[in-house]
Specification:
The chain has 265 residues and is of the alpha/beta class. The protein has 10 helices and 7 strands. A 5-stranded parallel β-sheet has the order 2-1-5-6-7, sandwiched between helices. Strands 3-4 form a two-stranded antiparallel sheet. Helix 4 crosses helix 5. Bound molecules: adenosine-5'-triphosphate (ATP) and magnesium ion.
Length: 265
């Protein structure tokens, strides 16, 4: 068993440590692959740089994501091990408010992990979970790895796919199949961030509640208003804004010469 940290709320990294506990527990319950730990650490590093808060370009991407989910004919939310360990309940809620299907979609696919993730989603209230066991009968071409299996009722026929924390080759293959890909990725330079139609550069932990609220808020808009949000969104510009924000933040911290006021602590 992983050590319980019972981290003190006053600890400056309390939230980050709690999130790490969720991920390490996910490894123990076979939900998270070992490589998922490394992916999480890569995300954390970029979260430090944006200041561990949702940015304004991040929020714009959340609004565009909500509009695209509401306009979709067949939206699918893709769930991998990290996603299941960090925000299963939020995925179930997002599926409900946006009328989307949930599909287990794994880079490191084993039947054991598929069923473990299905259980986490069902325990969180999901009624139907696609992509588990024999349901994943369709294969789609993937650029640098073996062909990937998806559910013919899910990702295969989806027009909009929400694939947070995804690998670049897999994102590229979905884009090439003509899907509108929405992702959450803290690294604006990753191939997924660059290939997706909408990249929410934020921690998935913060982004999911905001995305659910945004879908609920935009539900009252007319189709024409949703289409305007969709058409006005420019992912390249949004990614540039995030990178500039990172640069400015590092610049101002460097000018101050300190990050933490250690001497005054
Ligand atoms: P790519 O394959 O897209 O070029 P990569 O190989 O650098 O990216 P992967 O491990 O394939 O990285 O993808 C996982 C992505 O998820 C990383 O870009 C990482 O920054 C991001 N990530 C990990 N944890 C979180 C999180 N909690 N919230 C948001 N993004 C995260
Ligand atoms: Mg990758």
């Amino acid at each position: 068993m992983a050590n319980e940290t019972h981290v003190n709320d006053k600890h400056p990294r309390a939230e980050s440590i709690r999130v790490r506990e969720k991920i390490t527990k996910g490894v123990e319950s076979k939900v998270v692959a070992l490589a998922g730990l490394i992916a999480h650490g890569r995300g954390e590093a970029f979260d430090y740089i944006i200041g561990e808060q949702t940015t304004s370009p991040g929020m714009n991407a959340i609004t565009a994501a909500a509009a695209n989910l509401l306009l979709a004919k067949h939206p699918v939310l893709s769930v991998n091990g990290n996603v299941a360990a960090l925000c299963a309940k939020e995925f179930v809620d997002l599926a409900r408010v946006s009328n989307a299907m949930l599909e287990v979609n794994l880079f490191h696919r084993t039947p054991e992990r598929e069923y473990a993730i299905e259980k986490v989603l069902k325990d969180a209230g999901a009624e139907e979970v696609l992509g588990v066991g024999k349901a994943s009968t369709a294969t789609i071409p993937e650029i640098f790895s073996e062909r990937r299996r998806v559910d013919p009722e899910g990702i295969l026929k989806a027009d909009v796919v929400f694939v947070p924390l995804e690998d670049g080759d897999r994102t590229q293959s979905l884009v090439k199949l003509g899907k509108t890909v929405i992702t959450v990725d803290l690294n604006p330079m990753s191939r997924t961030a660059q290939w997706a139609a909408i990249t929410i550069v934020d921690n998935i932990i913060r982004a999911m509640p905001l995305l659910i609220k945004e879908v609920e808020r935009l539900k009252s808009l007319k189709i024409s208003e949703l289409k305007k949000i969709k058409n006005d969104f420019d992912n390249k510009k949004t990614l540039s804004e995030v990178m500039l924000l990172m640069e400015h933040r590092l610049h101002s911290l460097a000018e101050k010469g300190v990050y933490l006021e250690i001497n005054n602590a």
